[in-house]
Amino acid sequence: MAHGYEVTEVKNGGVISGRVCYSGKEAHDSLVKVGTHSEYCGEQVELGRLRVGTDSGVQWATVMITWIEKGKCFDSIHIPLVHNIDCRFEPRVSLIQSHTPIKIMNGDKIPHRAHFALIKDSGQTKDLMSIAVPWAEMNLGVSRMLGHTGLVGIYGIVHPFERGWIWMMAHPYGEVTDKNGKFSMKDVPPGIYKLRVWHEYLGEQTVTVIVRAGDVSDVTVIY
Questions:
Q1: Architecture of domain 74-171 in this structure
Q2: Coil, strand, or helix at residue 172?
Q3: If you ran DSSP here, which 8-state letter would residue 38 be given?
C-alpha cells in the first residue's frame, strides 16, 4: 500500500474511541445569499461548516493516526460516493483509501459542477479536476480516480457555497465523527500514536494516545 503501510493480521488490538466537543457559546454558521437556482436551493443557505449535537459534540471532524507502519486492511472495497443532494455535497467529509476511484452523482433537478483540489499542509492548493455531474433524471454518475494522499477539497462551481472534503488515506485508521461528536477506531496495534484531529471550521489539534492490547483508549478533544 501507499507510503509503505503493510497490511497484517492484528491480534488482540486495542480501540481508540472518544468525542470531539465544542466549548464555544454559540454554534451557528454564516448565511449566504444564493445566486443561481435560488428557486431550487432557496434564497439563502447556511454554509454548514459547524454542526454541534448532543452535549456539544462536533459532527464532521476527522480523527486520524498520523503514522502507522502496519495494521488491518481497509474494511470495504466499494466505490466511495459523493452525492449532490439539496444543493449540498453528501457526505460533508469522507475518509477513503488513497488511489481509489470515487463516484460523483447528482440527486437534484438542476445542474452541478464540482471542482477538486489537493490541499497541501502549507495551505497551497493543486487543482486536480472539474466535473460536470449529470442531472438526476439521467440517473448517471461520473467515476474518477484521485491519485493522491492527503486532503482534497470539493468546491461547487455553479454554487460557490457548496463544500465537501475527502481525506485520501494511506491506512485505514481514521474516523469521521457522528452527529454527537463520537468516533471509534478498532483493531489498532498496541503502541503510542499521535492523532491528527481536523475540522474545516475549527482547525487542527494533535493528541498523543497510548493503545494497550485488548483495551479501550478514551480520547476527548475540545475546541
A1: Sandwich (2.60)
A2: coil
A3: H
How far is it, in rounded angstroms, from Cα 41 to Cα 50?
19
Omega prior to 91 cis, within 30 of 0: yes
Does residue 34 sit in helix, strand or coil? coil
CATH superfamily of 1-70+180-223: Carboxypeptidase-like, regulatory domain (2.60.40.1120)
pLDDT category of residue 40 using cuts at 50, 70 and 90: very high
Spell out the residues 6+ positions from residue 37 whose beta carbon is closer than 8 angstroms to its own.
87, 110, 158, 159
Place of cell 499542509: 121
Where in the chain is CATH 2.60.40.1120?
Answer: 1-70+180-223
- Delimiting residues of CATH 2.60.40.420 domain(s) in the chain: 74-171
More confident residue, 41 or 3: 41
Which three three-digit cell numbers place residue 136? Answer: 438526476
Q: If you average pLDDT over residues 85-96, what whole number do you get?
A: 93
